[in-house]
Write a structure and sequence with these properties.
By secondary structure, the chain is mainly α. It contains twelve helices and no strands. Helix 7 runs antiparallel to helix 8 and helix 9 packs parallel to helix 11.
């Protein structure tokens, strides 16, 4: 009955008559192109530059992913106040956890990483970041435990987990395990 009174209500909102212009659409396209080309450094600079201007904040998780790959997590801590202001607490808590872990305050760091999960950060991604943070803080034994647990889960992000695991094995002086993990990793990325 209602649809007869308002026939346009149920039509496709993206029809030719309806013009939708997202001012950030071109920015998303540029970011997508950089990511597809695997130009991580350029993508990171482009993304964080736009985030500083309050744009592309929906891609904050991508910026953390890139920062982790590029070893630029310290640069991301500058965004903590903005993340809090915009109520993107999952990112703020993760980065605060990172800061505490670097200061060797493991309990506080782990608590904040757990808070990031409670605030909406995916558990697997948070654990991958935690593994990297622990390596950087000098706790490779904990990283090994986290990575081995993640690798047991079906569908895990193995291409992100193995680099942290390999680094942790080497930090522990376990070259044999590092080489074995590296071989598995190479097999996976070669297809």
């Amino acid at each position: 009955e209602q649809s007869r009174k308002f026939p346009g209500l149920w039509e496709n909102p993206r029809s030719e008559d309806w013009n939708y212009d997202d001012p950030e659409e071109e920015l998303y396209d540029t970011l997508d192109e950089l990511m597809e080309k695997r130009e991580d450094e350029k993508a990171f600079e482009f993304l964080t530059g736009n985030m500083r201007e309050g744009r592309l904040l929906s891609e904050s998780g991508v910026s953390l992913y890139l920062a982790g790959n590029l070893g630029k997590m310290d640069e991301m801590t500058d965004f903590i106040p903005m993340f809090k202001e915009k109520e993107l607490n999952q990112y703020a808590y993760l980065l605060e956890g990172y800061q505490f872990l670097l200061r060797k305050d493991i309990k506080r760091g782990l608590d904040l990483v757990n808070r990031s999960i409670q605030a909406g950060f995916t558990e697997e991604d948070a654990m991958i970041h935690l593994a990297r943070f622990l390596n950087q803080s000098g706790y490779p034994k904990r990283t090994i435990g986290i990575c081995e647990k993640l690798l047991k889960k079906t569908g895990s992000k193995v291409t992100e987990i193995y680099p942290a695991l390999i680094e942790a094995y080497r930090m522990q002086g376990k070259e044999k395990e590092a080489v074995a993990a590296e071989e598995k990793y190479k097999k996976i990325i070669s297809g």
